[in-house]
C-alpha cells in the first residue's frame, strides 16, 4: 500500500505515475496508489477532474458526485479504510486524458501546497471530519441538478476540494474556509436553479 499523500502535488504525482505506466487509469488503481486510508485525497481528485476540461463530459460530474457521496458517507460512519464497489473501481479514463487533467491542475496544486498546511490541526479530526462529511454529502447532492447549467458544478466541487485539502494537509483554518465555501456554494446553486 502506498504512503498517504500529504500535499496536492503528491496526489498528482501518484496519479501521473500511474498514467505513464499504463494505457488507462482505473479508479481502483488510484485507490491503491493513494493509500486505502486516505479519504481526503479522493475529495480533492474528483473535484479537480470536474473543474478540468475532462469534467465537461456529459454525466461525468454526476457520476463523480455519486462517488464523492459514497466516500463521504464512509467518513461520516468513521470507517478507517476506503471501500468502493467493483463497478466503480473498474471505471477508467485513457492515460492521455488523465495526464492532460494533471497538467491542467498543476498550477492550482502548487498554489494550494504553498498556502495551506497544518494550521489548527485539531479541527481536522474526530467530530469535525464527520461534520465535514455531512457537508460534502449535501454538496454532492447539489451537483446533478447543477450539471444542466454551464460551469455551475464548479462552486460545490470547489467547496468539496477545500474539505478534502483541509483533511489531507490537516489545516483547520482551511476547514473553516471550506464550511463558508459550502454555504456559499449552496446559495449560488439555489440562485442559479431559481433563475431558470
Could you outline the blueprint of secondary structure elements for this entry?
Elements lengths: L7 H14 L2 E3 H8 L4 H13 L8 H17 L9 H4 L2 E3 H21 L11 H20 L7 H16 L2 H23 L2
Antiparallel strand pairs: 1-2
Helix pairs in contact: 1-2, 1-6, 3-4, 3-8, 4-7, 7-8, 7-9, 8-9
Characterization of the model:
The chain has helices at residues 8-21, 27-34, 39-51, 60-76, 86-89, 95-115, 127-146, 154-169, 172-194; strands at residues 24-26, 92-94. It has 196 residues and is mostly helical. A two-stranded antiparallel sheet has the order 1-2. α4 (60-76) runs antiparallel to α7, α7 packs antiparallel against α8 and α7 packs parallel to α9. The radius of gyration is 15 Å and the shape is globular.
Amount of beta strand: under 5%
| Low-pLDDT stretches | none
Query: Based on helices, strands and strand pairing, what is the structural class?
Result: mainly alpha
How many H/I helices? 9
Strand order of the largest sheet: 1-2
Question: What is the gist of this entry?
Answer:
The protein is mostly helical and 196 residues long. It has helices at residues 8-21, 27-34, 39-51, 60-76, 86-89, 95-115, 127-146, 154-169, 172-194, and strands spanning 24-26, 92-94.
Top keywords for this entry?
196 residues, single chain, globular
